[in-house]
Each structure stands twice: as C-alpha cells, then as structure tokens.
Amino acid sequence: MSAPILELDDVGKSYGNVHALRGCSLRVRQGEVTCVLGDNGAGKSTLIKIISGLHDHSEGVMKVDGEATRFGSPREAQTGGIATVYQDLALAPLMSVWRNFFLGNEIRTGLLRVLDIERMKQICHDELAKMGVVIPDLDRPVGGLSGGQRQCIAIARAIYFGARVIILDEPTAALGVKQSGVVLKYIVKARDAGLGVIFITHNPHHAYLVGNHFVILKLGRVVLDAHRDELTLQQLTAEMAGGQELEELSHELRGAEPGKVAAPAAVPHGQVQAPELGPGDRATDPEGR
Ligand SMILES: Nc1ncnc2c1ncn2[C@@H]1O[C@H](COP(=O)(O)OP(=O)(O)OP(=O)(O)O)[C@@H](O)[C@H]1O
C-alpha cells in the first residue's frame, strides 16, 4: 500500500461550544477514492474546510506527505496540491468553457502580455479530451452546459493545475441518475490518473460504485472506517441509514397507523432504495472486478 498523501490524526474542530468534528482520522492515498459519508450536520463541511485551508483545526494533526501541516489559506492548500471542487463550482456561468478553465491562471504572450487564446483553447480541449469530455464549442458559456459537464470541467481544471488530492463536495447531489453516472465516471478517471480523491456524499450507492475506502461521520465523529473488502453495499447503506433508528421508526409508524405496513426501512432522505449491483454497475468497480 502506498504512503498516504494526506493524513488526519484525531483532528477536531470546535466553533465555540459546538464540537463540529472530534477525533477524526483519515488517510488519502494516490489512486484511491476515499468516500466520506454523513447526514446533515455530521461534520463533512467542517472536514473539507480544514483540509482545504479555510479553517484551522483545533485538535489533532494533519500531515501532507508525512509532514505536519496547517494551511493558512485556500491558496496555500492549492499550492500543496489540494484542490476542492465545491457543489456551486465557482465557475462563471456567462464565461466560455476555456475562460472558466483558465480563470485566474490565464496564459499570456508577447511584450504586451495579451491573452494567448489559441493556446488556452488547445490546452482546454486536450485536457477535457483526456478525461473523455467532448464539448464541441469551447466558446459556449458554461451556464448552458449540464450540471455533470460543469463538474467534469472543474475536475479536469483541478488536475491540470497540479492537484494531487481532489475533494469533491457532494458532486452528484443535485444531479439526476444519468448525469450522476457521468460524474462518477470522471471520479474514476481522476483516480486512475493517480489522484487521491475525497468524495463527499450522502449517497451510499454512489459511494460504493467508485469508492476504495469509506468513512461515515455522525455528529462530528467517525462511526465507520472500512476498506471496500470489509463492507458490502447493504452494510454501508444500513450504517448510513442508521439501521437501528430506522427499525425503531418502522415500529413506531406501524404502531401509529394500525393495519398499514410501514414503508421499507432503508430509504433515508429521499435516497433510492439500494439495488443489488448488477453487471453494468461493476463497470466502475475500482478493483476492476
Ligand atoms: N461556523 C460555525 N459556527 C458554529 N457552528 C457551526 C459552524 N459551522 C458548522 N457548525 C456546526 O457544526 C456541526 C457540523 O456542521 P457541518 O456543516 O460541518 O456538517 P455537514 O455534515 O457538512 O452538514 P450538511 O450536509 O448539512 O452541510 C453542525 O452542528 C453545525 O451546526
């Protein structure tokens, strides 16, 4: 197993009296997808903010390449090779695809330092092609693209600008089934390109399709930390759903409405009931099984 690029040891963060994160340990390795799952208020955003340099941790140690590190700003985290793709993406909707790709990092040429548009378009085209993204017209405003395509542009951009760890903040949360599939494929491509991917999600089905490693946060604590070999999709779903709590709820609902059969237990927060993985799903199995 390769040495972790990023390690958290017992990291915690308090906002005044609120312990948003406690005793969180995590390893992110090259060529692996680490999925961080958790309900609302579990501490996922706090974790992202610590790793991406927005907040400092109050307890524990964060290491990058084995060295204890505290990022003073998101820019420092980026320089350290850590890129965060937020759900709202920080893309400018009215700007073209290539302008968005180079936003803040434009290539200039000549004495007058004018924008080298042709070169930027060519690089943008090549980098998207490497990820298998085909956008025929790079002059098109990003706002006119699908949510899945926008996520992919943001991922390709992070890779091109030197990310070694990429944090994806619920990239499939606002997407339908097909678009989610597109984004999951690019997560696999980023992993195969050698990045360490942190995939934040509410959805155990999406996580299990691409994940090598799974961490579940609940009320700021890690309640599950398992490698793919140690866990089935059903177990992951049950852990996420809080099997015991749903069992109790199911009894309660049955009691409340006599004669009615309670709804299936494991469907929290509008998520889809867990399908058994079919042969098609295995296409994105990170172990290639
Ligand atoms: N700036 C803050 N000040 C005080 N409390 C905060 C702050 N940010 C987060 N918290 C609290 O910390 C806990 C964890 O919040 P966090 O946003 O990290 O959870 P989350 O898992 O990202 O939730 P969601 O999925 O709803 O975004 C919550 O109880 C939240 O209310």
TrEMBL record:
Domain of life of the organism encoding this protein: Bacteria
Gene3D superfamilies: P-loop containing nucleotide triphosphate hydrolases
Annotated SUPFAM superfamilies: P-loop containing nucleoside triphosphate hydrolases
ABC transporter domain location: 6-244
Segments for region (Disordered): 253-289
InterPro entries hit by this protein: AAA+_ATPase, ABC_carbohydrate_import_ATPase, ABC_transporter-like_ATP-bd, ABC_transporter-like_CS, P-loop_NTPase
Record's keyword terms, sorted: ATP-binding, Nucleotide-binding
Molecular function (Gene Ontology), one example: ATP hydrolysis activity
Pfam families: ABC_tran
Protein name in the entry: Monosaccharide ABC transporter ATP-binding protein (CUT2 family)
Source species of the chain: Nonomuraea polychroma
